[in-house]
Design a protein that fits this description.
The chain is of the alpha/beta class. The protein has two domains: 122 residues, Aspartate Aminotransferase, domain 1; 237 residues, Aspartate Aminotransferase, domain 2 (3-Layer(aba) Sandwich), CATH 3.40.640.10. 34% of the residues lie in helices and 18% in strands. It contains twelve helices and 17 strands. Strands 4-12-11-10-7-5-6 form a seven-stranded mixed sheet, with helices on both faces. The chain has a four-stranded mixed sheet with strand order 1-2-3-15. The protein has a four-stranded antiparallel sheet with strand order 13-14-17-16. Strand 2 and strand 3 form a beta hairpin. It is globular, with a radius of gyration of 21 Å. The two termini are 30 Å apart. Bound molecules: pyridoxal-5'-phosphate. Pyridoxal-5'-phosphate binds next to helix 5.
Length: 396
């Protein structure tokens, strides 16, 4: 552990004294020596006053940029009215958000929770209860979260080590391998759910092919099982459409959302298409904080801001980013869609992330050799150029 104040502007970190408490945090993350204190649009500042261009977006969370005025105003207004009432009662922000999301997904019904992993837990439970069956098919390399059910459906064995036994009844198929999918799904008579990310995010920014996703939908429909699109990372306009699935020609029975939904306040949602879970009723699932009024008020402002103009910016800036990345030394391949971009490098990605941060740019990895970029959807042309120049310098 580094001590307080090391490398900081004189006084700042020492005055806050925060460095002293790093040992009081369970070390589940390997954090660099950076404490973020402020954000505005696509920029964030640390406690030493250094500015960063934020192309991690808090891991695809800060969809509209830090402290977006409309979202901030909505959250402020709700803070002054009501913080919490519990799910024993209706609240206006929760109802408004359900209506907005339902309108985006053909009359779907929403269950609100607090994170992506919780949204996927809800999907697993709804699928089992709705079908009366146990089995789940997920993808190798997929990521659905860290709680026991979502972890069991996460196709990354390294994340399981030390946490077994996992949920029984989960089989994995290879992404974009239809034969492997058919094998994992059979026999269909005990299949409850196929869950997949339209673009595997944590698993390396791997887009699923339209034919593969259509086959998954057909297998689920034939078997009487449900198809869930985990759009926790790809949803809310990130790929250029409200849901990434819109570009894949399928209508999943279940959709999970979280990351960008409230621009940084904790929230998750499971959307259930009309008539797909008639067995679900009072008492079947719940969450004390789920549908929190402040988070829902912020989320309403986010959903209302995702319009044609914003989506056009996602597509234009995404094309600009991908084209620029392809021209950089050390970039072997660029994958993704819109503002979910993965640059496959000819070297390990983690040192490149550090080198970018030293030059004032926050970026992410997705696996050992993939640099992952998830800027706010409002990112400007000049900011993309600036990021490309820094990544180029870091790779040179
Ligand atoms: C981040 C992520 C999750 C987990 O969300 P949390 O909010 O961290 O629980 C689940 N699925 C996908 C696709 C994700 O990217």
């Amino acid at each position: 552990m580094t001590g307080a104040g090391e490398g900081a502007a004189p006084g700042l970190r020492g005055d806050l004294g925060l460095g002293l408490h790093r040992d009081a945090v369970l070390p589940t993350y390997a954090r660099p020596d950076v404490t973020i204190v402020r954000g505005e649009a696509c920029r964030a500042w640390d406690d030493a006053g250094r500015a960063y261009l934020d192309f991690g977006g808090g891991i695809a969370v800060v969809a509209l940029g830090h402290c977006h005025p409309a979202v901030t105003a909505a959250a402020h207004a709700q803070l002054d009215a009501l913080w919490h009432a519990s799910n024993l009662y209706w609240t206006e922000p929760m109802l408004r958000l359900a209506g907005l999301l339902s309108a985006r997904l053909g009359g779907a019904q929403a269950f609100f929770c607090n994170s992506g992993t919780e949204a996927n837990e809800a999907a697993l439970k709804v699928a089992r209860k709705a079908t009366g069956r146990p089995r789940i098919v997920a993808l190798e390399g997929g990521f659905h979260g860290r709680t026991m059910g979502a972890l069991s459906a996460t196709g990354q064995p390294a994340k399981w080590v030390g946490f077994g036994p996992l949920l029984p009844g989960v089989a994995f198929a290879r992404p974009n391998d239809v034969e492997s999918l058919r094998a994992a799904a059979s026999p269909g008579d005990d299949l409850a759910l196929i869950i997949l990310e339209p673009i595997l995010g944590e698993g390396g920014v791997v887009p699923l092919e339209e034919g593969f996703v259509r086959t998954a939908a057909a297998i689920a429909a034939e078997a009487g099982a449900l198809l869930c699109a985990d759009e926790v990372q790809t949803g809310l306009g990130r790929t250029g459409t409200f849901f990434a699935c819109e570009q894949l020609g399928v209508e999943p029975d279940l959709v999970t959302l979280a990351k960008g939904l409230a621009n940084g306040l904790p929230i998750g949602a499971l959307l259930v298409r009309e008539g797909k879970a008639p067995a679900i009723g009072p008492g079947d699932h719940g969450s004390t904080f789920g549908g929190n009024p402040v988070a829902c008020a912020a989320a309403c402002a986010v959903v209302e801001a995702i319009d044609g103009e914003l989506l056009a910016n996602v597509v234009a800036r995404g094309d600009q980013l991908a084209a620029g990345l392809r021209d950089l030394p050390g970039v072997r391949e660029v994958r993704g869609r819109g503002l979910l971009a993965g640059a496959v490098l000819d070297r390990p990605a983690a040192p490149v992330v550090d080198a970018c941060r030293d030059r004032g740019l926050l970026v992410l990895t997705a696996g050992a050799d993939v640099l992952r970029l998830l800027p706010p959807l409002v990112v400007a042309e000049a900011e993309v150029e600036e990021a490309l120049a820094i990544i180029g310098a870091a790779l040179a």
